[in-house]
Amino acid sequence: MEVTFTLPFSQGEDQIWDNVIKPALVPSVTSEAMQILYYGCTEILNNANDHSNGTEVSISIVVDESEVRLMIEDDGIGLFQKLQSETKDSDPVSVALNLVKGGLTTDPARHSGEGLFFSSRIFNTFLVESRYVFGQISGKWLLVPTKRTRGTKVTMRLDRNCTLPLEDFFAQYAPSTDDFMFTQTSIPVVLAQTSNALISRSQAKRLTYRLERFKKVVLDFTGVDRVGRAFVDELFRVWALEHPSTELSVLGANSEISLLIQTAQRA
Ligand SMILES: Nc1ncnc2c1ncn2[C@@H]1O[C@H](COP(=O)(O)OP(=O)(O)O)[C@@H](O)[C@H]1O
Ligand SMILES: [Mg+2]
Question: Is the beta carbon of 84 within 6 A of some atom in ligand 1?
Fold first, then answer.
């Protein structure tokens, strides 16, 4: 199914969900999948409406044997273009890292910068395309350039039989013990690694930028083969000592990286 709406919406995104998208999904998905699709769809539609400055958004829905595939595409400025110009940071790696940490918004008075954080993790595949393709496919994170010059296209895929309650997913990052505040994050370190290996203090600083707002941070080294001593020292000794109220933990590190981290933490 494919539908197009004019921007800004004449109705709320929840109306578009109720009247157009939800009917196309009933009875193909579990109630848990429906909750997740509702969340993702309304967040991405709201972004197109509030942030893109475009004139049109198109939604395409495909339901096959095992999954729902949703594509939402606007013809506006483009997510990377917008973030690179408004944050005055032209480096796409910084932009991607700030998105993946969560809490990044260009409109703090009216938004919280959580939509892409949560949506990008809950789907089996979540990709944003605008100048770069950014997101994850089955948990593998990527950031690669594209030829797209305008607009933003978001692709979300979800298992039709998904049984994960949305609330349980949120609780991993916004636990009831912290009054459901967004206090915990995780960072796929592989996103910080472009053509250059992770060796320098400045590369580590891209990871730690704005990280002190969180109580707990998981650094996920999956897909990273090698890191340098200065990079590790900056993260696990210098930054950790300066920010004792943020707890850093490590996931997916190979034995060599684990040893380097332990050495830095002991120093
Ligand atoms: N479709 C889009 N077009 C342009 N910029 C976008 C789009 N979607 C998101 N953005 C940018 O990405 C930022 C983060 O989006 P999100 O995580 O949903 O947070 P929020 O909407 O609360 O600001 C937005 O503040 C905006 O700058
Ligand atoms: Mg949003």
Answer: no
Question: How many other CB atoms sit within 10 Å of the CB of residue 100?
Answer: 23
Q: Over the stretch 237-264, which tens digit does the pLDDT of each residue have? A: 999 999 999 999 999 999 999 999 999 9
Greatest alpha-carbon pair distance for the chain in Å reads 60
| Minimal-distance CA residue to ligand 1 atom 8 | 47
Nearest CA to ligand 1 atom 3: 52
Domain segments of the chain: what residues? Answer: 2-162, 183-266
**What residue ranges of the chain have pLDDT lower than 70?**
none
Tokens of 114: 């959580």
Indicate the residue type of 81.
Q
Q: Assess whether the C-beta atom of 51 lies below 6 angstroms from ligand 1.
A: yes
Q: 83 in ligand 1 pocket by Cβ < 6 Å? A: yes
CATH architecture observed for domain 2-162: 2-Layer Sandwich (3.30)
How far apart CA 21 and CA 34 sit, in angstroms, is: 10
- Which amino acid would we find at residue 76? G
